[in-house]
Structures are given as C-alpha cells and as structure tokens.
Design goal:
Length: 429
C-alpha cells in the first residue's frame, strides 16, 4: 500500500476538521483495555471453575423427608453461568449485572453447609466471577477513555452529513429478542401450571405406603400393604433400593411418588434455551439503537483518517498520516444508507431480498481519505465519509459494532477471485 491515498473532495470535509495524527492515534490505542481483560482469560476461568463446582457437588437422594422438585434457583444459576460465557466476551454491560448476581446466589445458596471440596470449588467460581466483573469494568472504562481522547483529538463537532437514512440499527435483534422472550415467558407459565396441577392432585390424593419390588429405567414397581402391585413413574429409580418403603400418592388414576413431586425440567430447559438468547438480543438491540441514535441527536467529533475495504467486506481505518497502512486502528462493517424511508432496509444492514439491495463500492484495497463522524471506541457506532473507486464521495454507516483488531492482524487483501479491476460499478453486498 505504497500508493498515494485516493483524495476526498474538499467539499465533503466539514470546516475545521483536523487530521487524526499517528501520535494521537497511538494514545487512543494505548487507552484501550489491558491485555488481562481479554475474554480468552475470563471465559475459560469461569468455565473451568463452574465445571469443577458441578462435578464435586453432592447429589441429594430423593426421599419422603426430602422430596425432589423443581429447583428454580439452580435454573437461574445455570442460566447466568451459561450466559456469562457469552457476555464476558461480547456484552460487558450485562456482565456488570449478571456476575455479581450469580456470585451472591452462589455465596448464599451453595457455601452454607458445603463440604470442604465443594466449598473450595464454589469459592473458585466466585473468584472467577469477580475477575470477569473487573475485566468487564475495565473494558467499559477503556471505551470512555477512547471516546474522550478521540473527542480531544477532534476538537470540533459537526452533525452527520446527508443522507442520514432511517434509524434501523438494532431493530432486528429487538424483534427477535421479544419473540424469544415471549417463548420463555410461556415456558415459565407452563412450569407453574404443572406445579399447581400437581399440588391440586396431591391435596386430594391418598397416601399409600408401599414396598419397592423392582425398578425400571423410569419406573418403580411397588406392592402396597393390601397386596396391590403398582408401577409408578420415577425420574431417579436408582434412589429406591429393593425392599425399601416409599409413599405413593394416588388420586383415582393419577399416581406419583411422594419423594418426586412434579419436575419442571422441560419448561425450565425451554426457559434457558429461549430466555438467554432473548436477553442477549434485547441488550444488543437496545445498545445498538441507543448508540446509533446518539450520532443523530447532536453534533459529534469529526476526524480525517484513511480507510480501505478488504475482501471480507470490512472497512479498516488508519491514522491520516499512515499512508503505508502499517497500523490499523479499528475495523467495522459499513453500509450505504438509503435516504428514502419507503425503501426496505434490513435491520442489521444486510439485504431483505434481491429486489431492494443496499450497495457498497466494490472491494478496494487502496487507501482512501475519509472523515470519521463520531468518537470511535470498541463496540461503538460511527459514520464514514469517503470515496468510491471513481473518487466520488459516499457516506457509510457502521452496520455492526466497531472492533479493535488484535495486535498483528491485517486486512485480507490477497483474494484476486473477488477483485474486479476492470469495473468501477458498485457491487451489491
């Protein structure tokens, strides 16, 4: 990339817009999150400690004195632990809430009365949660630092250039999250209805003492005191030894072991399967919509920089004086906004169908001058004004969050199969 960057017409550059120098960009990069906050440390730490805690936790046996039943607290703990494996990597905002909540539930629900090995494992889980919370807090603090430094480097603020286009960011995640949230809510209602139905039968049922005579895969065969043989469903038939006495609840044709009330495992599993993605999608949608809306509400910092589009469709941004493209600052996927609100645009910046496609300039691995609207930071939103292959000004909106590339990562520039040097026409994305 030793060629001179494609210039941007002066009329597309707001008055007083400064160049983002390599020195200012280096300070911006140094203000990023520390290496210890990377998910590669916090996610495996939590995963290992949770597996350890589950492996050493004693499994109580079902009995009339201590019947098994739906455990909503454990379901919430499992859900938060599974969710945090994703939120630690992508949603530090949720981590700040979920990690302390799970740590408190483990401290109050698992530590009292635990044996030494289980206590050590649960303390390790709490330590991993605190480490993940600290990492998430540092990542959010780094975003604030980068926003501040970018604003100081800019010094001036301007409103977004036309066409701004409709505010569509976050719409699809919000819609999907609401649908999945409704499914999760329905699963909760189903589980509660099952519990109420069991309590209704149990209140009317006769309590019959019986002796265990045999066990199946999911049943227990018993003989009552009056000599009747019965087969009763059991989730844990191995808990009942042959010859032991159990209590059978009988309400007409309805029978159940008193040691095993209604188990809402199915509805609880559906709650986790739908509720966790729903919570993640709703958070992503709200954050994306809020960040995209913030660009439109007031003037934002503007900086001159350099950009190129690689063969993966990503825009890479460099300091204005880094004409060799040695040090990429951040990357994002961008799309051209459609000014007419009646034109259908996908909520995430992709096409709905082949008839109404958003278009991007064809992949151009040459550096172009650009103007960055908005203070960039990891997971932020921004607008780029740059040029196409013919040198005409275009406005690009981030179709996804800004990402800071790992050290040493470079744009993919060596895919000749996707390069068309003989055409200046735009390519549909």
């Amino acid at each position: 990339m030793s060629e001179t960057p494609v210039p941007i017409p002066s009329g597309s550059v707001p008055a007083g817009t400064p160049a983002w120098s390599s020195a200012d960009a280096a300070r911006w990069t140094e203000a990023g999150p520390a290496s210890w906050t990377r998910p590669v440390w916090s996610v495996p730490t939590l995963l290992i400690t949770v597996i350890w805690a589950i492996a050493v936790e004693p499994v109580p046996r079902c009995s009339d004195a201590a019947p098994c039943g739906p455990d909503w607290s454990s379901m919430v703990q499992v859900g938060l632990a599974v969710g945090l494996l994703h939120w630690l990597a992508r949603l530090p905002e949720l981590t700040l809430v979920a990690a302390p909540a799970l740590a408190a539930m483990v401290a109050w629900g698992e530590l009292p009365g635990a044996d030494p090995m289980s206590r050590a494992a649960n303390l390790a889980v709490i330590a991993a949660l605190l480490f993940g919370w600290a990492a998430a807090r540092e990542r959010l603090a780094a975003r604030s630092r980068q926003q501040r430094l970018a604003g100081q480097a800019a010094g001036v603020r301007h409103r977004l250039p036309e066409p701004v286009g409709p505010l569509t960011r976050g719409g699809l995640p919000l819609a999907a999250g609401l649908v999945l949230g409704a499914v999760a809510a329905g699963a909760v209602v189903s589980g509660l209805n099952g519990i109420r139905a069991y309590e209704h039968h149990a209140a009317r049922a006769k309590h019959i003492a019986a002796k265990v005579t045999g066990r199946g895969e999911e049943t227990v065969r018993v003989r009552t005191d009056d000599g009747r043989p019965l087969t009763v469903g059991a989730l844990y038939p191995e808990d009942y030894s042959l010859g032991s006495t159990v209590t059978v609840l009988e309400d007409d044709s309805w029978r159940r072991l008193a040691a095993e009330p209604y188990d809402a495992f199915g509805p609880q599993l559906l709650v986790l399967a739908a509720g966790l993605p729903a919570l993640s999608l709703l958070t992503v949608g709200v954050l994306a919509r809020r960040r995209a809306g913030a660009l439109r509400r007031a003037p934002v910092p503007v900086l001159r920089a350099l950009t190129l589009t690689d063969h993966e469709g990503r825009n890479w941004v460099y300091a204005a004086d880094d004409t060799a493209g040695r040090t990429p600052l951040f990357t994002c996927r961008c799309s051209v906004p459609l000014p007419d609100s009646d034109k259908k645009a996908n909520r995430t910046g992709h096409d709905d169908d082949g008839g109404n496609e958003e278009e991007l300039p064809f992949v151009e691995t040459r550096l172009h001058e650009a103007v960055v609207f908005g203070a960039p930071y990891d997971s932020g939103e921004l607008v780029l004004v740059t040029t196409d292959r013919a040198g005409h000004p275009i406005t690009l909106h981030s179709g996804g969050p800004v990402r800071i590339p790992r050290t040493g990562r470079k744009p993919l520039l060596g895919s000749p199969a996707t390069t068309d040097t003989g055409s200046d026409s735009p390519r549909p994305r």
